[in-house]
């Protein structure tokens, strides 16, 4: 089974958002914050999918 190009684009975009906005140790800039304010509106993916993409 191959990974589609659209999935690869969403994964790279999710990683870019996490690297740009996530701050370890800062609860105000947690992964859930990044997902809620940036990833969900732009990519339309769920929280578990977001976590799977950035790992």
Lay out the secondary structure.
Blueprint lengths: L4 H17 L9 H13 L3 H8 L1
Which terms summarize this structure?
55 residues; mainly alpha; 0% strand
Describe the model:
Helix 1 packs antiparallel against helix 2. The chain is 69% helix and 0% strand. The protein is built from three helices and no strands. The protein has one domain. It starts with a helix and ends with a helix. The longest helix has 17 residues, at 5-21. It has helices spanning 5-21, 31-43, 47-54. It is elongated, with a radius of gyration of 11 Å. The protein is mostly helical.
Find the structural class using helix and strand composition.
Answer: mainly alpha
Task: Report mean pLDDT, rounded to a whole number.
Answer: 95
Query: How many domains comprise the coordinates?
Result: 1
- End-to-end C-alpha gap: 20 Å
**Biggest β-sheet description:** none
Helix content, binned percent: 55-70%
| Quaternary structure type | single chain
Number of helical elements: 3
Segments where pLDDT lies below 50 for 5+ residues? none
Provide the succession of SSEs.
HHH
């Amino acid at each position: 089974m191959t990974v589609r190009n659209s999935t690869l684009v969403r994964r790279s975009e999710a990683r870019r958002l996490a690297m740009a906005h996530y701050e370890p140790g800062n609860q105000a800039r947690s992964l859930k914050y990044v997902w809620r304010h940036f990833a969900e509106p732009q990519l339309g993916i769920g929280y578990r999918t977001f976590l799977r993409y950035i790992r």
